[in-house]
Amino acid sequence: MEKLKEINLSKLVITCLFCIIPISFIIGKLIFEINILLIIIAFIFSLNKKKFSEVFDKREFLIFLILIIYLQFNTIISVDWQNSFIRNIFFFRFYILIISFRYFFINDYFNSKVFRFWILIIFITTFDILYEFINGQNLLGFKSDYAHRIASFFNDELIVSSFVFSLLIPLFSYLYLNKKYKLSLFFLLISFIAIFFSGERSVFFKMILALTIIFYFWDYKNYLKKYVLLISVCLLILSSLFISVNKYFKHQIDRYIFSIERQISSNDNFSMRQNLLNTNYINQAVVTYEIVKKHPIFGVGNKNYYKSCRNYMKQNDKNYCFTHPHQVYYEIFSEHGILGAFLILTILIKLITLNNYKIKNKSNKKKLFIFGIYLYLSLIPLLPSGSFFSSNVSLLFWINYFFYTYYRDLLIKRENLNN
Asked: Which ranges in 218-246 belong to alpha helices (H)?
């Protein structure tokens, strides 16, 4: 009886650790990292050889091993190994994270509880975004320091849309696979509205691309005319009304569409280089070019972008140096060079496409493409992004990778059962 209670308590603790992942992310980086660490520890202590064999993929492990070995090499050749060391040496934890999630998510009862709790958190967050827009502060009294930007539960960090978007595809995929069509559409709608209100342009454009992909590939066609057309018409009418009567919406439309053109510098008195430097985000392409010119093969090493920028840019241009380049390709090419970038991108593509050949059904192939939206959009050129190898961004990427492989394997199992 005591052993049974111990097992039930263990399951309860593990379920709680997974349920509070979104909350721990909101609280802060340290709590989020501790939560993930506790999940990994729980995985190690509850390890069962037979169960582990069900979630272990030898080819996936070998691909990750190549990436891990390369990153240790990257530390050795970096311009300052101390900057790269921590980020590279502990990269293996992302692989353990994936295996840990896969190990526990075998239990359908467990994962349904987690998914439902996460959906509730996203609903609360989207409501909080709207509440802050209307009242000027969120439910906890937090206010954004920036006009026309919403901080929500993140207080002084403007990342609420990135948070919502990071969980959007896994949760939509859960509803989609369980044929909760009305709820899945409603979930997309409120997420879209919340991201629009937040004022994060990069995430808003990613959301537009995500919706385009979803509506192109989804397979419940009977619902297309009935729900999507209705929602589109409602959004069009509401948008027209809001734009007509509300200065905020006029400003947001201006920020999302027209202000981008105004930010591109085209002063005839400046050289092309100076015009590029005076254009937000594109200026980091100039910095990347200067760094790659000095270290073309393997770059300057992980987390050495800022230091190298300060070293290689002219004195007057040093104010364009940021802690990271705000674009995934600038980061990869400057810190890993041409050869290193090719290796990393090849590995990422190989991981994403691994075992996809096992899916034969055309409908399932379309579903799989939807499940990978976050991964594809994380690697899209031009749009600004966080530092790909930083803890939070990497954790969100690899958590989405886990869900992508989880749903992929689920589709493969269903096909095998039907054959």
From this structure: 222-223, 229-245
Query: 112 vs 46, 106, 115, 344, CA distance in Å?
Result: 20, 11, 5, 34
- Cβ count within 10 A of residue 45: 8
Query: Cβ of 271: how many Cβ atoms within 10 Å?
Result: 9
Give Dmax (Cα) for the chain.
82
Count CB atoms within 10 A of the CB of residue 49: 6
**pLDDT tens for residues 65-113?**
999 999 999 999 998 888 888 889 999 999 999 999 999 988 777 888 9
Residue 258 to residue 387: CA distance in whole angstroms: 27
Summarize pLDDT for 308-355 with one digit per residue, the tens: 888 877 766 677 777 877 888 989 998 999 999 999 999 999 999 998
Query: Is 355 in contact with 404 (CB distance < 8 Å)?
Result: no
CA distances from 197 to 26, 230, 383 (A): 18, 21, 19
Six-digit token string for 133: 């827009």
Would you say the C-alpha torsion 293, 299, 303, 308 has a positive or negative sign? negative
- Among 185-199, 212-226, 235-249, the range with the most confident prediction by mean pLDDT is 185-199
Using a 10 angstrom Cβ sphere, with 0-12 exposed, 13-18 middle and 19 or more buried, the burial of residue 408 is buried
296 DSSP 8-state letter: T
Residues 265, 189: Cα–Cα separation, whole Å: 35
Tens of pLDDT, residues 388-409:
888 788 899 999 999 999 999 9
